[in-house]
């Protein structure tokens, strides 16, 4: 028995609906312990150097805290400004 064109299209459309269109957002690499120590110490010069070497301003730590959240917790305004200038977002989860 030969399948009708409508059944073929139905199977094609149904199966294509099961395939995700995108893989989702790509998460930045996790925050290294050295990067965390720089934020904890409030060393703006070292933070700038780390960001210049490729550290992400959005890298989460093990508890999903971003560098901006860590800098806020440790109360360093100059680190906060640098992270905001380098592209961290202020959107909450």
Please tag this protein with its features.
Serine Threonine Protein Phosphatase 5, Tetratricopeptide repeat, 93 residues, mainly alpha, rod-shaped
Class derived from helix and strand content: mainly alpha
CATH topology of one domain: Serine Threonine Protein Phosphatase 5, Tetratricopeptide repeat
Write the element-wise H/E pattern from the N-terminal end onward.
HHHHH
Mind telling me the C-alpha Rg?
Answer: 22 Å
Can you give the helix content as a percent range? Answer: 40-55%
In round numbers, the mean pLDDT is: 77
Superfamily at the CATH H level of one domain?
Ankyrin repeat-containing domain
Quaternary state of this entry equals single chain
Summed up, the helix count is 5
Count of β-strands: 0
Write a compact overview of the structure shown.
With 93 residues, the chain is mainly α. It has helices at residues 5-17, 33-41, 44-52, 67-74, 77-85.
């Amino acid at each position: 028995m030969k399948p009708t064109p409508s059944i073929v299209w139905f199977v094609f459309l149904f199966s294509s609906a099961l395939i995700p269109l995108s893989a989702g957002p790509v998460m930045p690499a996790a925050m290294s312990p050295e990067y965390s120590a720089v934020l904890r110490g409030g060393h703006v010069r070292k933070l700038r150097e780390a960001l210049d070497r490729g550290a992400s301003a959005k890298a989460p730590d093990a508890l999903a805290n971003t560098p901006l959240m860590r800098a806020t917790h440790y109360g360093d305004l100059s680190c906060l400004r640098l992270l905001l200038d380098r592209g961290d977002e202020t959107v909450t989860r």
